[in-house]
Amino acid sequence: MSKNIKSIDIVFGINPVYELLRAKKRKVNSVYTTKVPPKNWEKIKSLLPKYTNIQFIDKSVISKFAGTDDHQNILALTQPFIFRKKPFEVSKQKFLLLLDSIQDPRNLGAILRSAYCTGVQGVIVTSKYSSPITPTAIKASAGLSEYLDIMIYPSAKSALLELQKSNYNIFISTLDKAENFVDVKFKLPLCLVIGSEGTGVSRDILSLGTNVKLPQIQADISYNASVAAGIFLFNVAAENKII
């Protein structure tokens, strides 16, 4: 098993491997597990295609290739994550999420998990200063990233300028001068923008939409990016009766 094959991705963890197989979007070449199989192994095994190679190896070997002990004794080798190529269509994808330079893969995964749970129909990530869809991000999403339509843009600005032309309503989460989110009507079709953990959204996009902030007890603190995203996403989904 080699990590140097660029055409192969690693997915580890019980739920991520299960959802990878259930989604049926990516070819799963091999699955590695321990001689004493993990919880739900039979459930996972029942979804394995006939061509998938199954190998039983020592836990320490799985840890070596996963780069962590947090693999729950199962790891899959699969084709790379499949990203969307065509621009989102306002008539079909009415609820979008744009992640502007989210750098922590655990935050990224947690946000993608919330996006799936709240019915987001498309996710945009930026290519610069952003965490890629790593095995850690997939693990943090509980494997639900497999069901999301994710597209990469060079920058948040380039994405929003395109969305403006398609008449999306754009709402930008920021700590700067902004409207309190409880007073804002989140009308579909829309794109919600969540900024990076350290610096927030890019300064050059603040004029491209409605700036919105979450209320908090002190001005010099802020919510974790994944927590803020979860609050916003739930509110938008509930207000528009998506959930």
The CATH class assignment of the largest domain is Alpha Beta
- Enumerate the spans where pLDDT stays under 50 for 5 or more consecutive residues: 1-5
Helix-strand sequence = EHEHEHEEHEHEHEEEEH
CATH topology value of the largest domain: Alpha/beta knot
Number of strands: 11
Mean pLDDT, rounded to whole units? Answer: 94
**Fourth-level CATH superfamily of the largest domain:** SPOUT methyltransferase, trefoil knot domain
Assembly state here?
A: single chain
Q: How would you write the strand order of the largest sheet? A: 7-6-5-10-8-11-9
Provide the number of structural domains: 2
Calculate the terminal CA-CA distance, rounded to whole Å: 42 Å
Q: What features would you highlight for this structure?
A:
single chain, 243 residues, alpha/beta, 60s Ribosomal Protein L30, Chain: A, Alpha/beta knot, 2 domains, 7-stranded parallel β-sheet, 4-stranded mixed β-sheet, 7 helices, 11 strands, 28% helix, elongated, disordered N terminus
Short description:
The protein has 243 residues and is α/β, with parallel strands linked by helices. The chain contains seven helices and eleven strands.
Can you characterise this structure?
- The protein has 243 residues and is α/β, with parallel strands linked by helices.
- It has two domains: 9-78, 2-Layer Sandwich (60s Ribosomal Protein L30, Chain: A); 95-239, Alpha/beta knot (3-Layer(aba) Sandwich).
- 28% of the residues lie in helices and 21% in strands.
- The chain is built from seven helices and eleven strands.
- The chain has a seven-stranded parallel beta sheet, sandwiched between helices. A four-stranded mixed beta sheet has the order 1-4-2-3, with helices on both faces.
- Helix 2 (41-45) links the parallel strand 2 and strand 3.
- Helix 4 runs parallel beside helix 7.
- The longest helix has 15 residues, at 225-239.
- It is elongated.
- Residues 1-5 have low confidence and may be disordered.
